[in-house]
Design goal:
Length: about 350
């Protein structure tokens, strides 16, 4: 998108394709600001101080007209809000589902509501969450799935049978136990489970079935190659209203997808996809179905990709109107923060 504004996107994560994609679409820069270990709560006070200092340095250097920040962690928005208020920049929060649903962050809801109300726009992944932030007095904008671009990647070693790539980060909403049991029920397939194994439970590693490989955290090139070689992509969540980055990636590559049977995921991944309960038997059955109908699902997924990319362009344009102060997008009446 051609623009004369200077946009900067701050994310306190070691990786985030969503932030990178939105920043690129706005003609801006994306900064992944992260120190020490990922998902280690005891380190949080130390790394948050370091990340706050790094964030302010980036903003002082780039002096953007609009600054976006991903939450959680909720604390990432504090230095961005401070800088935007002092320098008259537009302030946009990309609110991931965790701040609304996960116990790790819901205790900070009073702070989250305050920050959301002071943002010029709050980007969320679905209309359910948009309605919640509007009720809190914020301006919600839905941008669900974002287009994902992959390079050719490095081709992985051959494996026996269909290749099931499980896009996974060992988050609290990922039913890893059920995936391990589903793998045991599909010995003819080989499962590749992504994610930093340091965040995995020791018994998962020790008791994994022979047809399952924990890849560990892999490079961009290896990750792209792994997904391109997949016969099926498996992405699961036990939490409703949670969008799936791995689902976007399956759409981008035209790969058959198996994901959880939630309303949001049915609506977003309406074709090329098998939706399942988060139970071993249902997951195994869904994978069998996807493998058996792979060619049909691939064709459907390619069609869905075209549709979703057009929807992203429309929703991004709506965000740009708000950033540019379009008078037709007035803020809602502020509701009391509870």
């Amino acid at each position: 998108m051609t623009t004369t504004r200077r946009a900067t996107f701050i994310t306190w994560y070691p990786y985030c394709r969503r932030s990178d994609t939105i920043a690129e679409a706005l003609g801006g820069t994306s900064h992944l600001v992260h120190y020490l270990s990922f998902k280690k709560p005891l380190q949080a006070p130390f790394k948050y101080v370091m990340q706050t200092i790094a964030t302010l340095r980036i903003l002082r250097r780039e002096r953007p007209d609009v600054v976006l920040v991903a939450v959680p962690p909720t604390f990432a928005a504090l230095p961005v809000w401070y800088w935007a208020r002092r320098h008259g920049a537009r302030f946009v929060i990309d609110a991931h589902t965790g701040i609304f649903e996960h116990a790790r962050w819901t205790w900070l809801l009073p702070l989250s509501k305050l920050l959301l109300r002071h943002a010029d726009a709050v980007v969320v992944t679905n209309d359910h969450l948009r309605q919640r932030v509007v009720e809190w007095g914020a301006r919600g904008v839905v941008i669900g799935d974002v287009p994902v671009k992959f390079g050719p990647g490095r081709t992985p070693d051959p494996c026996r049978g269909p290749r099931v790539v499980v896009v996974n980060t060992f988050s609290v909403d990922e039913p890893v136990d059920a995936v391990l049991e589903a793998a045991r029920r599909l010995p003819e397939s080989h499962f590749f489970v992504t994610g930093d194994v340091r965040a995995a439970q020791p018994n998962w590693i020790k008791e994994k079935p022979a047809n399952l490989t924990f890849t560990g955290f892999v490079s961009e090139e290896d990750y792209a190659g792994l997904l391109r070689a997949a016969d099926v992509v498996l992405v699961l969540t036990t939490h409703d209203h949670t969008m799936q980055r791995g689902g976007y990636e399956a759409v981008a590559l035209g790969k058959p997808l198996v994901t959880s049977d939630w309303g949001l995921l049915r609506e977003t991944f309406s074709r090329g996809t098998v939706h399942v309960r988060n139970e071993p038997g249902a997951i195994a059955d869904g994978l069998r179905q996807a493998i058996a109908n792979r060619d049909t699902l691939e064709t459907e997924m390619q069609s869905l990709g075209t549709e979703r990319r057009a929807l992203f362009a429309t929703r991004l344009a709506n965000l740009v109107k708000i950033i540019d102060g379009d008078s037709s997008t007035d803020r809602p009446i502020r509701a009391a923060v509870s």
